[in-house]
Amino acid sequence: MAVSRRRLTAAVVAAVAAAALTAGCDAVNKALDCVQTADSIADSVTDLQQAVENAANDPTQADVSLNAIEKNLDKIGDKTGNADVNKAVDDLDKAVANVRTAIRNGDRTPDVGPVTDAAGELTKVCTR
Fold it and tell me: pLDDT band at residue 101, thresholds of 50, 70 and 90?
């Protein structure tokens, strides 16, 4: 289940508008940072899916994608005090760790479904 750009863009607009109506600029900036980082993670998840599909050609690309996801997770974790966002970040971090472990254990085609699902959930909580 890939996160579509059109849905994400619409969600960004809605999240920023809602935050602007209910909170100050700081909250709007945090919401926008969360959504932008979630968008970067969605890109990395797409890259991960492609890397797993092409693992026979270049097994290092999955590791590159996993590193990018983890880097973006660190950014979100540092910028929010929202419990739902933090839980979604933790869930995605665990899913990434499971894929990384599977790859280390020799699985050339690990199940990235939980990563995709967790990234989708992160996008949802960032746009609430």
Answer: very high
